[in-house]
Each structure stands twice: as structure tokens, then as C-alpha cells.
Amino acid sequence: MTDSLEEFLIARRGTGRPLLVPYVTAGVTPGWTDVVHAYADAGADAVELGFPFSDPMLDGVTIQEASDRAIAAGTTVKGILEEVATLDVDVPLIAMTYSNLVVQQSTAEFCAALTAGGLRGLIVPDSPLEEVGELADAAAAEGLHLVLLAAPSSSRARLREIAERSRGFVYALTRMGTTGEHSEVPEQAARLGRELKGLTDRPVLFGFGVSNPAQAAELAGHADGVVVASALMRKLLDGARPRELGEYVASIRRALDQGAR
């Protein structure tokens, strides 16, 4: 794959399909890479890999539980990258982690390791816009797209800066708070999606609380697609196998495609 993350997603969007990015916590279970394959086979446009951290402050109980399980199993950044190097999927892989892991050696070394491992994007949700410069420069030097988060509470000026500085896509939060499943789509999310779409041609994807296929389709109607995390990890933690997770992603893919018609 020679396209950058952003080029790949823009090309996929250009076919008229809403974008779908499912998530898995790396190391959460033996053979977790089979989940990545199942997602790709089910119609994912990219896959987000959570690099587990002991204090994931923006994640709800489900992702925290998945991270705890992965850490207890001995998961490390080095180990994740070794397993990622064995993956053969035709969609980009995006790392999601926290600043502490990024700076354990240096931001430059971390970004270089991700790129060498085959990852195309990076999300660091606890790295605020005002402090993201060094990380953005290190990522850009490695051809790694640093995805920034946009919150419903942000001013229009801040949203404009986020949209301009983000790479790959803009990660729009459906609500304030932590990740997790929710039963309804707040009106503030719809407003945020419309505003960001008016500020950039870069893909805008909703995350945090995308809980089922119908909700994913509704949110995608206000943006370019969705990131689905907690709903999938809850199924995995409850015993779902890669094939079952792939089937659920396929059901989201169908809902997104039907909603776009």
C-alpha cells in the first residue's frame, strides 16, 4: 500500500461509501491479529489498534478492562509492533495510545517505530492542541498521519485549527467524557459534524459512543463515517471470536451503505 492514510480514506470516500474504522486493543487476547483480519474482510476502511496503557483517562470501563487484560498478558509496544509486522491486510492501521507511551524513549523514536512496523496513523487523545507541535513534527517526518480530536465544546476558531492541523482524518467526539456505549445520538454531535465538514475537506469521522449499526448510520449522515470501539470490545470481552466480531462489523458496514443510498 503506497497511499498515505488520508489519501486512502479520501479515495474510499470518493466511491460514495461512508468510512468505517473499527478498533481492537492490541494484545487483549491471544491471536488478536485475527480480529484485524476479520475487520478488514468485513469491509473496514482502516483499523484502529489500541496500544494499552495503565491509566487510559479518556476511555470508559470497557476499553479500560481490555487494556488491563492486555497489560496483564504482558503486552508491550515492542511486542505489538512485532505482531503488526506479520499482518497482511489491505487497509491502513492506526495506533491509538497515550502520551506516556509516546515519550518513554522519544517522540521521534516512537513515530519511527510505528512507521517501520507498518502503521499509517497515530491518535494520542491526551495530547492537547497547544502541546502537539513536537509530536506532529515527529509524525510528519516519518510520514505518519497524526489524527486530532475535535470536541463539541470547542470554539469555531479552535475547530478550524484542529481541522487544519489534523492529518488522516478529523476525529469528532459525539459527546464530552470518556469512550463507551450510549443509546442516542446527541444533537451537539450532529452540529459538530456539520461544522467540521464546513471547515475542511479532510474526512470527518465520529467516535466515542458509536454503539450499534443504526446509530453508526445516523452519525455518518452528519460526517464521513465512524470509529467503533467499545461496542466491539464489549463483545470480545464477553467471549466473541474474531469471526463473530467480523460479522458485527459487516452489519455496521451494511447499515452505513444502506443509509448512504
Please give a structural write-up.
- The protein has 261 residues and is an alpha/beta fold.
- The chain has one domain (5-253): TIM Barrel, CATH 3.20.20.
- The protein has helices at residues 5-13, 33-41, 61-72, 77-84, 99-102, 107-116, 133-141, 156-165, 187-199, 213-220, 230-237, 242-259, and strands spanning 19-25, 47-50, 93-96, 121-123, 145-150, 170-173, 204-207, 225-228.
- The chain has an eight-stranded parallel beta barrel, surrounded by nine helices.
- Helix 2 (33-41) packs parallel to helix 12, helix 6 (107-116) packs parallel to helix 7 (133-141) and helix 10 packs across helix 12.
Short note summarizing the structure:
Pathway: Amino-acid biosynthesis; L-tryptophan biosynthesis; L-tryptophan from chorismate: step 5/5. With 261 residues, this protein is of the alpha/beta class. It has one domain (5-253): TIM Barrel.
Order of helices and strands: HEHEHHEHHEHEHEHEHEHH
Instruction: State the CATH superfamily name.
Output: Aldolase class I
Span between termini? 29 Å
The fold-level CATH name is: TIM Barrel
Q: Tally the helices: what do you get?
A: 12
Largest sheet: 8 strands, parallel, barrel
SS class:
alpha/beta
CATH class type: Alpha Beta
Overall number of domains: 1
Second CATH tier, the architecture: Alpha-Beta Barrel
Strand order in space, largest sheet: 1-2-3-4-5-6-7-8
What fraction of residues sit in β-strands? 5-15%
**Uncertain parts:** 176-182
InterPro entries: Aldolase_TIM (IPR013785), RibuloseP-bd_barrel (IPR011060), Trp_synthase_alpha_AS (IPR018204), Trp_synthase_suA (IPR002028)
Protein name: Tryptophan synthase alpha chain
Keywords: Amino-acid biosynthesis, Aromatic amino acid biosynthesis, Lyase, Tryptophan biosynthesis
Subunit structure: Tetramer of two alpha and two beta chains.
